Backbone:
């Protein structure tokens, strides 16, 4: 069973007992093997299998943390948000309506991150105190060009720092649009605002980013 | 934003989609920067700019530079590195035990799910009935100058008058009424303090049930799940 090409391409992180044919057939989803895998794990988690839920966590935690840490510019807070989001997902497994598990988890994380942003407005903290932390740096391969690595790191540092200085609403809209690839209508639905507001936030946010980075735009040109 | 001059001076009469004529000024500071920002698509996807933006991009070097910068930022954002995940987010058995809904939370979880299609219409229906009932009970009284509390006594007195007139069609006295025995029976059957009319009680009950269902759903759906 585990030799099945579908499962190989799905690359389940940890699988204790193989999926049965019935499980694979019973799931009425598109042919996307990743979605099929996620849905099977959700069904198992709903049935009380904690290991299945933890498989989901392992599969999505990196992507979700990367999403949240862009929205909540504090690593500890972002970490708490992701943990709370997984707790919430576990509590509300019954509320999952099918479709993309990744989108469902993304939505929970976005809502949790927006709640945290609202709290941060009331109790602002120093954004990204760990900007100089080495963990920000991308992993370097053995044949990586040192100059290229330095430029990439500097770009990332500059743009992440600039992102902390625009408003939370603009940051959320830009991250969802430019990084996560949602369209305007999806972002409007996720954030509970109108389509025009989403567009305005994205466009104004981009202009604000450019204004903040005006002196460092050479990093991004060419 | 500092208003800078473009490389060349120009002035274009422009007919916008709403039919009025817009004049593009030469000063970049007067140009619509949001319009330029709107022409930047996602990542490498280009958005076909509207004609006015095309004119700005073609004629103003500052606008063209702004567009190129915004495009570069949109490209750089998705590939910017983020901090490493500081810990593992898997749930322990104790977490799972704590998070599994029990008792009231379990019931609330049932009505809070997005698959629950019953409670919301029920809540709306009960609330509407309650409000309508209250309106029916109060508005006629308010229009005639009596409140809800005035209705029972009004009804009572009119009923008494009807009973009296029915008992003595020829305008007989109260003594005649007593002889017939009808007036006593009717008067005894009238409550002395009838309390609020049933429609008000029912309406308030409907409102309470509807409000309770709404509150239950709200509590059940509280948290990041929306």
Residues:
């Amino acid at each position: 069973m585990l030799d099945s090409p579908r499962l190989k391409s799905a690359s389940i992180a940890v699988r204790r007992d193989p999926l049965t044919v019935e499980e694979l057939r019973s799931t009425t989803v598109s042919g996307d093997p990743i979605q099929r895998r996620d849905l099977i794990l959700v069904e198992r988690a709903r049935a009380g299998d904690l290991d299945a839920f933890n498989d989901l966590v392992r599969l999505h935690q990196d992507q979700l943390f990367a999403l949240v840490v862009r929205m909540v510019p504090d690593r500890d807070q972002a970490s708490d948000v992701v943990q709370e989001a997984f707790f919430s997902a576990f509590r509300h497994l019954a509320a999952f309506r099918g479709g993309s598990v990744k989108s469902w988890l993304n939505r929970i994380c976005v809502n949790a991150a927006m709640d945290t942003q609202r709290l941060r407005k009331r109790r602002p903290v120093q954004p990204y105190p760990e900007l100089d932390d080495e963990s920000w740096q991308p992993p370097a391969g053995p044949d990586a060009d040192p100059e290229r690595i330095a430029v990439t790191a500097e770009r990332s540092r500059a743009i992440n720092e600039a992102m902390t200085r625009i408003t939370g609403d603009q940051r959320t809209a830009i991250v969802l649009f430019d990084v996560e690839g949602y369209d305007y209508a999806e972002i409007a639905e996720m954030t509970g605002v109108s389509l025009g507001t989403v567009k305005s936030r994205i466009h104004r946010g981009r202009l604000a980013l450019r204004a903040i980075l005006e002196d460092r735009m050479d990093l991004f040109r060419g | 934003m500092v208003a800078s001059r473009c490389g060349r001076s120009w002035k274009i009469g422009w007919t916008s989609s709403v039919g009025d004529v817009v004049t593009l000024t030469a000063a970049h500071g007067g140009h619509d920067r949001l319009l330029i920002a709107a022409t930047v698509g996602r990542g490498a996807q280009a958005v076909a700019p509207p004609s006015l933006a095309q004119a700005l991009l073609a004629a103003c070097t500052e606008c063209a530079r702004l567009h190129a910068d915004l495009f570069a930022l949109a490209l750089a954002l998705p590939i910017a590195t983020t901090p490493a995940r500081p810990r593992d987010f898997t749930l322990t058995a104790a977490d799972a035990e704590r998070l599994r809904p029990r008792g009231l939370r379990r019931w609330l979880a049932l009505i809070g799910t997005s698959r629950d299609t019953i409670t919301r219409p029920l809540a709306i229906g009960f609330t509407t009935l309650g409000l309508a009932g209250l309106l029916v009970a109060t508005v006629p009284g308010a229009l005639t100058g009596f409140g809800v509390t005035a209705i029972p006594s009004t009804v009572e007195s009119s009923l008494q008058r009807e009973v009296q007139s029915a008992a003595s069609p020829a305008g007989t006295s109260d003594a005649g009424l007593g002889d017939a025995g009808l007036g006593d029976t009717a008067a005894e059957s009238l409550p002395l303090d009838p309390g609020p009319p049933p429609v008000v009680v029912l309406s308030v009950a409907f409102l309470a049930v509807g409000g309770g269902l709404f509150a239950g759903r709200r509590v059940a759906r509280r948290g990041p799940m929306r």
About this structure: Confidence is low (pLDDT under 50) at residues 1-22, 170-183 of chain B. Chain B touches chain A through 47 residues (CB under 8 Å). Residues 14 and 103 of chain B are 68 Å apart (CA to CA). The longest strand of chain B covers residues 12-15.
